[in-house]
Hints:
The chain is mainly α. Helices cover 60% and strands 6% of the residues.
Amino acid sequence: xxxxxxxxxxxxxxxxxxxxxxxxxxxxxxxxxxxxxxxxxxxxxxxxxxxxxxxxxxxxxxxxxxxxxxxxxxxxxxxxxxxxxxxxxxxxxxxxxxxxxxxxxxxxxxxxxxxxxxxxxxxxxxxxxxxxxxxxxxxxxxxxxxxxxxxxxxxxxxxxxxxxxxx
Length: 167
């Protein structure tokens, strides 16, 4: 097992299999497993949505009232694809298109209360699935994971430009 750097431990690799490349491979495996866990939890929610649909709803939740162009840019998809995606979400009662008060040609996107409820349901299921997995770990492993994640996020912010949305 890789030492993610608990209190007082040396954060450097302890052997040839624990260097940055080996740990990166372990993290990639963990992320894949986490993505699968999240996907399963999302599919067990009250309404089954595709990952694209969930991302769209979460984007609108984070920036209520954004327009279709901003949504397409945020999801890195074409405008026609974003429009069809919004059509499906609106038909399901999750998203509302409201004319912009100042610009007749622009439409604002808002979550409906049902859309908010579905996102809360998915988030709750994902949190519970993750908590179940974490509960199976030893307390010291959870502490090491938490410490390692904080260290990773701090290092990422210093070496990867634009991660926080800035250039």
